[in-house]
Amino acid sequence: MRTAVVLFNLGGPDCPEAVQPFLFNLFYDPAIIRLPGFLRWPLGQIISRRRAPVAQKIYAELGGRSPIGELTEQQAQALEKRLNGKDERQYRCFVAMRYWHPRAAQTAETVKAYGPDRVLLLPLYPQFSTTTTASSLKEWYQEAAKLGLDSPTYSVCCYPGHALFVKAHADLLRKTLDQSEKPSNVRVLFSAHGLPKRVVEAGDPYQSQVEWTCEQVVKALGPSDLDWKVSYQSRVGPLDWIGPSTEACIMEAGAEGKDLVIVPIAFVSEHSETLVELDIEYKELADQAGISSYTRVPALGTHDDFVGALAEIVEATLESNSETQKAAGFEGCADIHRQCPLLTSLA
Question: Which helix (H) or strand (E) is 25 found in, with range?
Fold first, then answer.
């Protein structure tokens, strides 16, 4: 039995010249700009041209390119190694990026050439959103259909409370807290990428799942009086976004004389939002706010427990013989959202 496991991530530009086309792909996505295509195309061109100079300066801090492609490949290789060797089943892991290479069309061709008996789609977005998971999977199904890739296909919805995923976050956070000189004065700030309020108000479960993940990580640390909050970063455009904003929480911590430990709770790979926004821009803001100690917990990357979580999710999804693995570890999802958001968004 040959199984192709496709890992999905956002992707990022691999050179300075790729920044504008990467941004156009982002803003041309109907899940991001919710307008008809004939309006979305020129708007995407305008936004990407205007934002490209700023984005190029951001990526210049990273050597002119995003590291997310190489890091996601490392995660795929680690998962493939974990899955294989247990029995006669064979697993091969592939990567598909939503907004830069390799896109779904390219990866689908490679998967088809592999000739799998089944395909498992695994988003590297632990918390479901119509703007990430649904968008990536929808593109995959469209491109796979064009190619005639008709192997039985299974989709993972989300895993915001998976025990090993939570354990990996708790392990990295605990190690950081143990290094604090004044642990009683530390505030832990779980920072996740933000969303416009109207997306959440339309039924997107992302915010609920992010906050559920944070609660589980705090519980996994054991009994304590940990001072912690959830915040949202990376706001762009004039719309109202969910909050509180990470910037506001940093200023608040400074006013209260707190030290800060930042956890990138919704990012599993290092990229511009962690390496530049959190590590450089928000560190400067923390300095301005008078915060004496500002520390950022690493993204999960190839942490052994995180790779173990992905392996368990793959195996459980395939063994369930269900086309969609719903909300692994997220109690109450069905009560909050009338239908599985993955199914409704792909309808």
Answer: helix 19-27
Q: Is 29 helix (H, G, I), strand (E, B) or coil?
A: coil
Tell me the domain boundaries of the chain.
2-11+66-159+303-346, 163-296
Q: What is the pLDDT of residues 4-14, one digit of tens each?
A: 999 999 999 99
Does domain 163-296 fall under CATH 3.40.50.620? My reply is no
Beta strands in 211-286 (DSSP E): 227-233, 259-264
**Model confidence over 106-140: pLDDT tens digits?**
999 999 999 999 999 999 999 999 999 999 999 99
Provide the pLDDT confidence category of residue 323 given band limits of 50, 70 and 90.
low
pLDDT at residue number 319: 87
Task: Give the global pTM.
Answer: 0.92
- Residue-wise pLDDT for 133-167, tens only, equals 999 999 999 999 999 999 999 999 999 999 999 99
- In eight-state DSSP terms, residue 302 is T
State the helix-helix crossing angle for 163-178 and 304-320, rounded to 10 degrees. Answer: 170
Q: Report the distance separating Cα 204 and Cα 194, nearest Å.
A: 12
Residue partners of 138: CB distance under 8 A and separation at least 6:
31, 345, 346
Contact 147, 198 (CB under 8 A): no
Matching fold, domains 2-11+66-159+303-346 and 163-296? yes
Roughly how many angstroms between the first and final C-alpha of the chain, as a whole number?
A: 29
Judged against a pLDDT cut of 70, whether residue 198 lies above it is answered with yes
The two three-digit tokens of residue 126, written as one number: 């632990």
Range 2-11+66-159+303-346 classified under CATH 3.40.50.1400: yes
Confidence (pLDDT) at 333: 47
Starting at the edge strand found earlier in the chain, the sheet holding 227-233 runs 227-233, 186-193, 259-264, 294-296
Is 78 within 8 Å of 272 (Cβ atoms)? Answer: no
